[in-house]
Amino acid sequence: MQHRSYFVDEVSASGVAFPAVGGKLLVVRRPESPALDWELVVQTERHHPVDQAPYDLSITGPDGTFNGSAILVRSDGHSHVFRGAGDLDGFSDADFRA
Description:
By secondary structure, this protein is an all-beta fold. It has strands at residues 2-8, 10-13, 16-17, 21-29, 36-44, 54-61, 64-75, 79-89. The chain contains no helices and 8 strands.
């Protein structure tokens, strides 16, 4: 299994920016599947309610910008967990070797 994680400092979900964020994007390639698995965990400074639904995410951090569709699987208003539901634009297999 290969994996890579990225620090995240800006996130928008279907065009709506999250307030003051920090978080981590984790990308995984499993030997049994050609598709990438990815997950985004975002913490917001203030309470930011988000409906449990699919979103088009734009994720920015020091290592670049990533875009992809994901589903919000958990949220307590401050910590939000999105599970990737398809490709992650901005990521390539070469990034596993970086």
